[in-house]
Design goal:
The strands form 6 sheets. The chain has a 5-stranded antiparallel β-sheet, with helices on both faces. Strands 7-6-10-9-8 form a 5-stranded antiparallel β-sheet, with helices on both faces. The chain has about 950 residues and is of the alpha+beta class. Helix 18 runs parallel beside helix 25 and helix 26 packs parallel to helix 27 (about 895-905). The chain is about 45% helix and about 25% strand. Strand 24 and strand 25 (about 790-795) form a beta hairpin. The radius of gyration is 48 Å and the shape is flat. It is built from 29 helices and 30 strands.
């Protein structure tokens, strides 16, 4: 605060002898104990803002509380206040009347009383905290509105009885309910006249009883115009100690709709009972039909199948699996089925199916299948074709059964018919030949019976000695038979299980419930990698099993036996856990490698920027000094100019290499600045124009995630340049639900997203991005198709687990205990004709070069040097320079913060920014901090002295 004083502000209002304490939030529009004159007594100690503003809007004074407010405008003493404040001050000074204006400072709402001091041409503004008052007024208003709205929504009104006036006061909803204009005076008799004539006597009796203390709670009808309504009334009456009625309060609710709904509900209930009876009868009929169908399928040894043509998915029951010889784990598709069909019948069967789907009618065919044991069997199938609205078949439901024996019999009959025809035609064969043939037939049948017996023994041997553990149980879970593999699992013999209960040997409540569910539903159950612990041998540890329990039904459709088959997958589970562990380790190593690469890139970039470039600039400055000293020697001057050009070219190449390794904006700018810089680089280097849209409030504090997002975005844009075949793209960035969502879009050639499933050529970069973003807890979503462009959406969290967000803390302004009054630049020029310069740069070679260069100027004096922003603030306080030459990137306090603090404490000191960073974002930050101009270290050295003179 450099203009005005506490005494001047207080003196503008007459003093009073007593000062009431000022309480936050106690202000209102009405006068209170604390008057403006009381506040004026202690403006500096006042916890609320006190301001002085001139007629033209110039802020002359602000106390400590006012400083917090004016910084939000933004403004400072000597600056112009916002337009609405200036208008209010002008109005008060013009009319001479006190005014009032409300201003918000963050969450606090201040009410300012404007006291015009017309003789002095300014007005004093005294603030009061009215936040709680306004909030309370808003809550009361909203509560009143909510009550009226709630009554309207609930169709519930209220009323109050004034006994002294014999008057009823109704709410707006009560008037609307009774069809009476709002505000019409009413008495009890007037109310009673609206009650339905048939209910009037009972209402009056209830009211009379209520006057004696009985609760008033009644439902009755009222007549509103031509309509009859039902209402529900409740009331509480108030009596004095002698029992005299004082008044009452009650509610009335329109229950017409509920009464009508009750009648409709009763009628609907009766209709529902009738429909339930019909449904129960139909359900019983369906259950009986289902039992008949099961019996028919079992009797005909038929399998049931279903095929969905549109998605090539289907269903086979157990008998179908056995008929076509397919493992139960195989996928149920049309392709899997046609693979088993005999090659000679396959195309014919496909044609029959297509004809059935395309034309009216159902499907019927006979064909051969080749089972895994190369046995060929004849099957017959009939199916019902389900069609869509256009008549095209979309689903087929059918049965499958074995006709091999019938086909064999038909073949035999054909042969016998041929034989008989031949016998009739030739009539030359002897009866003995016929007998011989019959004997051969008997021998053939005996051989067939023998083969059948051998196959039965073979099946028994397969069951007993197969490596798959199998067990047969009855419906009570008692073992009937187990094979050797099942017995070996528990180290026992097969006979040790026969007759014993499964859960007596292996008690497990969860598994028992599953077994009982299979018996109840008659549906098989399949468990995958289910853990199991031997109750009697816990030392064996946990093992994991795939198992399936299959019910075998009798002719009545009830479960007779259960088949249990097991598969030990313990080693597989352990391998999966080890694989997941190794995958996690690989992801962490990959992330650490990427971060190490980023750190090394930044180290090399900083080495180029902080060492090589600074040395080159220092050399260039020294050459400039040398050029001035040898300006009369053209030969040496030409060599110096060539050397200066080479150094300038080296600076540019070093700067380009530094940016390519790790651009400075990546570490000193926000996410929006990083992406804007990347978009500009892509446009310059690749000719791709990218439209960037960053949502409000987007902030990514994690440096690791910001670096990853920069690299991922750059890779996606390079992918567009190389493969999309377009010259334009778009980037949209949003922040929501604790994450950053970045979408990169183009309208180019597009690609098949399946190529991202492996690191194939052209997809390795996107494959790597997806792998890395999954490790970081995010996702990469790809929407693309050949010829239809692409849209890649990258979602990452706002922070990495274990990483602390590196936000730059606000550095307090350095306090200086004693500082002489500032001298104006014009006075200095008049007396010394020299500009006092403070050089601030963290590279000594740069400071020395600048000092040597500026000392060549007769009107410039270098009074001090600082290697960081903190020292720059301290030296500014003691040396009182005219101009500070400020670097941007420095330790402890950077150039942006140092400039802001110097300009805030010493507004007359000019600051000129001098940096190797030439990005627009860096330039804007320094200009906002208060620098006069922004110069490049790589630029001509002559402009530095010119800029110093121009700033003053």
């Amino acid at each position: 605060m450099t203009e005005g004083s506490t005494e001047e502000v207080a003196g503008s209002v007459p003093r009073q002898e007593k000062v009431a304490p000022l309480r936050p939030g106690s202000g209102s529009r009405a006068p209170t104990e604390l008057s403006l004159r009381d506040v004026a007594l202690f403006p500096e100690q006042n916890p609320f803002p006190v301001l002085r503003i001139r007629l033209d809007g110039t802020l002359l004074y602000a106390n400590a509380a006012g400083d917090v407010l004016v910084k939000t405008w933004p403004c400072s003493v000597g600056g112009r206040v916002p337009h609405d404040v200036r208008r209010a001050v002008e109005r008060a000074l013009t009319t001479g009347d006190r005014g009032e204006i409300e201003l918000r400072c963050g969450p606090i709402l201040y009410s300012f009383a404007i006291a015009p001091i017309r003789a002095a041409g300014y007005a004093n503004l005294y603030g009061r905290d009215v936040t709680e008052t306004r909030q309370a007024e808003q809550v009361v208003c909203e509560s009143r509105q909510d009550l009226n709205r709630a009554q309207a929504v609930a169709h519930t009104g209220s009323w109050r009885l004034d006994v002294g006036r014999n008057e009823l006061r109704w709410s707006a909803e009560t008037y609307r309910m009774f069809g009476i204009p709002e505000g019409t005076p009413l008495t009890y008799e007037g109310f009673l006249s609206i009650v339905h004539p048939e209910d009037r006597q009972s209402v009056n009796e209830q009211w009379t009883a209520a006057l004696r203390g009985t609760p008033y709670d009644i439902e009755h009808r009222i007549v509103v115009g031509e309509a009859v309504k039902w209402v529900h009334e409740k009331a509480e009456l108030e009596f004095d100690e002698e029992g005299a009625l004082l008044g009452g309060f009650g509610t009335v609710q329109d229950i017409t709709a509920s009464k009508q709904a009750a009648e409709e509900l009763h009628e609907a209930h009766e209709r529902l009972q009738k429909q339930t009876e019909r449904l129960r009868s139909q359900t019983e009929q369906l259950r009986q039909n289902e039992q008949w169908l099961r019996a028919a399928l079992e009797g005909g040894r038929m399998g049931l199948w279903e095929w969905n043509v549109e998605n090539d998915q289907g269903f086979w029951d157990e008998r179908v699996y056995g008929l076509i010889g397919v493992d139960r784990q195989a996928a149920v598709t049309g392709g899997a089925f046609f693979e088993r069909v005999h090659p000679q019948d396959r195309e014919r069967l496909k044609a029959q199916m297509q004809q059935a789907l395309a034309s009216p009618g159902d499907f019927e065919a006979e064909f051969r299948v080749v089972r895994p044991d190369q046995r060929i069997v004849w099957l017959a199938s009939r199916g019902k074709v389900m069609r869509n609205k256009t008549g095209q078949g979309v689903r087929v439901l059918g049965v499958l059964y074995d006709v091999t024996q019938r086909k064999a019999m038909e073949a035999t009959l054909r042969r016998r018919n041929d034989q008989l025809t031949a016998e009739v035609r030739t009539r030359t064969k002897e009866l003995g030949d016929t007998v011989s043939r019959l004997q051969d037939e008997v021998s053939r049948r005996r051989r067939a019976e023998k083969n059948l017996s051998e196959r039965s023994h073979l099946l028994e041997g397969f069951f007993r000695h197969t490596i798959t553990p199998l067990a047969f149980m009855d419906r009570d879970f008692n073992f009937v038979q187990v094979n050797d593999a099942y017995a070996r699992v528990d180290g026992k013999e097969p006979d040790d299980f026969v007759g014993k209960n499964h859960f007596a040997l292996y008690p497990n409540a969860e598994n028992r419930a599953l077994f009982e569910e299979v018996v109840r539903t008659r549906q098989p159950y399949h468990a995958l990698a289910k853990p199991f612990v031997y109750a009697e041998h816990p030392e064996r540890g946990v093992s994991y099993w795939n198992w399936q329990l299959t019910p075998l039904l009798d002719d009545a459709g009830q479960v007779r036996f259960l088949v249990l088959n097991l598969q030990d997958v313990t080693e597989r589970q352990e391998a999966m856990r080890e694989l997941e562990k190794r995958t996690s380790q690989l992801q962490r190593l990959t992330a650490e490698l990427s971060e190490a690469e980023d750190r090394e890139r930044r180290r090399l970039a900083e080495l180029l920027h902080d060492d090589l470039q600074q040395l080159l600039v220092g050399s260039k400055l020294r050459l400039n000094i040398l050029a001035r000293k040898i300006k009369d020697t053209p030969e040496l001057l030409e060599i110096v100019d060539e050397t200066t050009g080479l150094i300038a070219e080296s600076i540019q190449k070093s700067r380009g290499l530094s940016h390519e390794l790790s651009p400075p904006v990546l570490h000193h700018g926000g996410l929006a600045e990083v992406l804007q810089w990347l978009v500009e680089q892509i446009r310059v280097t690749c000719g791709l124009r990218v439209r960037l849209k960053v949502g409000s409030g987007v902030d990514l504090p994690s440096q690791t995630l910001k670096t990853f997002l920069y690299k991922a975005t750059r890779e996606m844009l390079f992918n567009i340049v190389k493969h999309a075949g377009v010259r334009r793209a778009a980037i949209v960035v949003q922040q929501r639900d604790g994450s950053i969502r970045l979408a990169v879009c183009d309208k180019g050639r597009g690609f098949a997203p399946e190529c991202l499933d492996s690191a194939s050529q052209g997809a390795f970069g996107l494959f790597t991005i997806r792998e890395r973003v999954q490790f970081l807890g995010g996702s990469l979503t790809v929407h693309s198709a050949p010829g239809r462009g692409s849209r890649l959406i990258l979602t990452i969290p706002l922070s990495v687990p274990g990483e602390e967000a590196t936000r730059r803390a606000e550095v307090p302004i350095l306090s200086v205990s004693s500082a002489p009054a500032p001298r104006q630049a014009a006075d200095r020029l008049a007396s010394t004709h020299k500009f006092r310069i403070l050089l601030v740069d963290d590279h000594k070679v740069m400071r020395d070069g600048l000092a040597a260069l500026l000392e060549e100027e007769s009107d410039i004096e270098v009074v001090g040097q600082a290697g960081n922003g903190r020292d720059a603030i301290t030296l500014t306080a003691h040396l009182k320079p005219d101009v500070v030459i400020m670097d941007v990137v420095m330790p402890i306090i950077d150039g942006v913060e140092a400039t802001r603090q110097i300009r805030a404490q010493w507004p007359h000191v000019r600051v000129i920014a001098l940096s190797m960073l030439e990005e627009d974002a860096t330039r804007e930050r320094m200009l906002k901090a208060g620098v006069e101009c922004f110069l490049s270290k790589a630029g001509p050295s002559e402009v530095i002295a010119a800029a110093i003179r121009r700033s003053l």
